[in-house]
Write a structure and sequence with these properties.
Layout: H1 3-27, H2 40-48, H3 55-58, H4 64-78, H5 85-93, H6 98-105, H7 121-142, E1 144-148, E2 162-167, E3 188-189, E4 194-195, E5 219-223, E6 248-255, E7 260-264, E8 267-270, E9 273-274, E10 284-290, H8 297-302, E11 310-314, H9 319-327, E12 331-334, E13 340-344, H10 351-357, E14 361-363, E15 368-374, H11 375-382, E16 389-392, E17 418-422, E18 429-431, H12 437-447, E19 452-455, E20 458-461, E21 464-465, E22 468-470, E23 475-479, H13 489-492, E24 495-496, E25 500-512, E26 522-523, E27 530-531, H14 542-566
Antiparallel strand pairs: 1-2, 2-25, 3-4, 5-6, 5-25, 6-23, 7-8, 7-17, 8-9, 10-15, 10-16, 11-13, 11-14, 12-13, 18-22, 19-20, 20-21, 23-24, 25-26, 25-27
Helix pairs in contact: 1-6, 4-5
Amino acid sequence: MNGTQWILFILVIQVIHFLGTWKLYVKAGRKAWEAAIPIYNGIVLMQIINRPKWWVILLFIPIINLLMFPVVWVETIRSFGKNKLLDTWLAILTLGFYIYYVNYAEDVKYIEDRSLKPRTGLGEWVSSIVFAIVAATLVHTYFIQPYVIPTGSLERTLRVGDFLFVSKFHFGARTPMTAIAAPMVHDTIPLIKKRSYLNKPQIPYFRLPGFETPKKNDIVVFSWPADTVRVFFKKEKGVQKPIDKKSNYVKRCVGTPGDSLEVINGFVHINGKKLQLSDRARVMNNYTVYSQKGVSRVWLEDVDAADYPRKYIPAGITQNQVNSLRSIGYYVNADKNGNPFIQTDEKGISPDVIRQLRLSLKEETPRARVANMTDEMVSQLKKNKNIDSIVMEVIPKGVAGYNVFPQSPYYKWNVDNFGSIYIPEEGATVEINAKTIPFYKKIIRDYEKNDVKITGTKVFINGKEASSYTFKQDYYWMMGDNRDHSEDSRAWGYVAEDHIVGKPVFIWMSFDNFDEGISNWKIRWDRVFTTVGGSGKPRSYFKYFLILLGGWFIFDFFRKRKKSKEA
């Protein structure tokens, strides 16, 4: 639905409202024509139902209005004496069209000074819940959204198990594009696991004014451009999602509109210069660690390295033990000589499993191990005199990688040696031909809604042969700080401006072992109440929060005590 169609849709709603309420306006002492004037009719209606005029604003805020319409329908019929529970349900279940029946078939009288207080405890409870949901949805949609880091693509800058507040107002809140959706949930309703929205109608993209745009080095939450997943980790046919119902991803912005970007031996270069990252960025890369004495996993544990494999050699193992290990997710196989081995991640095999299965194991200590580390970890590990060398793992230039943008045989790129590419800017024009169309086809077709066909070496846009294209919006390049363990723009390309959600600003809670079940969670106290942005070592403000909270309780105690004495 484009802008014109949306305006027509709103006008149709206004006509429906007029036809269903004009007699009621007259019975309330107003003029019939007042029911026909957009916005003004809402202000008059608020006066009729004796509610604040500012409620009209809520009726025009996407998603919020879905909650407010039923409230207004019920308030309207009650203003004309229809107070029974059946009347309430008829108003809601008929999507307000019960008002037509009241308007034309019932001889109702307007109750000017009706009581606004709910008649029952249940009614008061429902009223409180509705407006709590309205307030929470308003804050969640337009100001601050809670978010949890589910994967390690930004390790160690943001950790799995970090609970964030994401600001919508820094970049300007993106108004919902999906007109009909359940409040306070994303694409799926919890428990019943059903889609939380209707694909149509769609509202044209609009963003409220912000006080900045995404800059290089900013950490950004955005709608995943490549998302066709109905449920993560479940293999099934993909679905087409509205932009605002795509899964939310969080990455670092490394390229902004108009930039030329290239990755050289694992390092991002912008406009020919190596990108200087924020001092809070903890970029991780795979390194091969060598030692003639064998690389002990204890050495890697001491520097908190990650993603290194561990290999166990069992002293005899039965098929039942193999089956049991495989059933709980361990990899069991045999080498070329038929000797069995068990391979795990850095956490190894649980002592409980070893004890329960009565396994006899010896861990292999190889002369070389690949581990995922930050520069600080590498520097610390180099102090170990037993280490011979540490070399960063880099895929050579010219070796084509797997699933690398733009997925074209013209470009033999990989995640470590990539580009250069141009990051499109609104209003900029680029040459279009058989070699450049792989970069921009998705933009032109999916993000900017044009028909694109390629015949031989010719490109046709909307049925006409094209040699150039002018972009309608800005685009960004997003990458994870966990460089070798992040699916990002290197796989699915550009992030359109209309996909930007917000900016993480605050970590209010953080748990270690987050993906191992709630019983294993451990609070990372040094990360609680820390800011995401800024420079220098993150500082926790949790103790200051506790001091303020304690001060408030003391103040409130003495305030109440003083009031009780005065009474």
